[in-house]
What does this fold into?
Amino acid sequence: MRTFYLDPALCDITNLMVKSWIRSEKFWVTVACVFSFAAAALYSFCNTDTHHWAFVLGTVKDAIRGDHFFSEIYIQYGVGQSLLFSGLNYIFPVNYTLLGLVSAVFYVGTLLLLFTGMKRVTGFKNAIFIAAVPFLVHPYSIYPWPDYTAGFFLAAGCWWLVARSRPLAGLFFFVSFLFRN
It folds into this structure.
């Protein structure tokens, strides 16, 4: 019978690597994003209601059928969400779960853009604090409202302003307006 022994030097290097990873910014940002997406996915699997979720799904289904915006489809916020899900309908069937997962992806993207943009402007510690505040107040998306998508494109517009690309910033601001006009 062969006995397997770990090399103490290898254990020290592995331990050091794990400790440095936990201390790194990428670890905590990744943990927050994974938690946010997982919680939103679980919420979208288990907690749908006919007011918030069915309203959005009904609007999208009307757009998929070819009804006209504002005359045959009641648009409460903007046409962006209906257009987005109409396009996604060619790839995935549009249902409550897809609404929740797409909202979660955009919310996580907003947190990432907020962190990276603020890190570029104010530094790492302030960026962590600024991105942690909305995460701690509202850790995951709970409804498929277009606010999450509009917030993503608004954050992307601000990120491109910081990167000094005004045409791309303007494009993202316009797309944000489509979701919340």
Summary: The mean pLDDT is 81. The helical segments are 8-23, 25-46, 52-65, 80-88, 96-122, 124-137, 147-162, 166-179. The radius of gyration is 21 Å.
